[in-house]
Amino acid sequence: MSIDVDEVKKIARLACLNIDETDMPSYATNLSNILDLVAQMNAVDTTGVTPMSHPFDAVQRLREDEVTDFDRREDFQAIAPMTEDGLYLVPKVLD
């Protein structure tokens, strides 16, 4: 598929992009090449090919789910300027 400079201008306007006029031909060439590659990939027969989430049959090693940090709320609230019923009190910002 071939994209010309006028189409690049339309795309740039729709995407709110400011592209320099001297760069338009290279954008048109690059976009045309990308669309040609997509067309080539669409032409490949993928019948019978199983979709994969990853090219390798890798298995993640999982660690045990165990608690490594304990409740330290009392320690942290002891150094806080103001607390009440386990909550941090902050100065009012908005009326």
- DSSP helical segment count: 3
State the secondary-structure class. mainly alpha
Q: Indicate the percent of residues in helices.
A: 25-40%
The CATH architecture classification of the domain at 5-43 is: Orthogonal Bundle
Hey, roughly how much beta strand do the residues contain?
under 5%
Envelope shape: flat
Terminal residue distance = 59 Å
Summarize the helix and strand pattern as letters. HHHEE
Q: Order the strands across the largest sheet as they lie in space.
A: 1-2
Instruction: Return the CATH class of the domain at 5-43.
Output: Mainly Alpha
The largest sheet is: 2 strands, antiparallel
In short:
Helices cover 38% and strands 4% of the residues. It is mainly alpha-helical and 95 residues long. It has a domain at 5-43: Histone, subunit A.
Task: Describe the overall structure.
This protein is mostly helical and 95 residues long. It has a domain at 5-43: Orthogonal Bundle (Histone, subunit A). The chain contains three helices and two strands; from the N terminus they run αααββ. The chain has helices at 5-14, 24-43, 73-78, and strands spanning 83-84, 87-88. Strands 1-2 form a two-stranded antiparallel sheet. A hairpin with a 2-residue loop joins strand 1 and strand 2 (87-88). Helix 1 packs across helix 2 (24-43). The longest helix is centred in the middle third of the chain and has 20 residues, at 24-43. It is flat. It starts with a helix and ends in a 7-residue tail after the last strand. The model has no long low-confidence stretch (mean pLDDT 91).
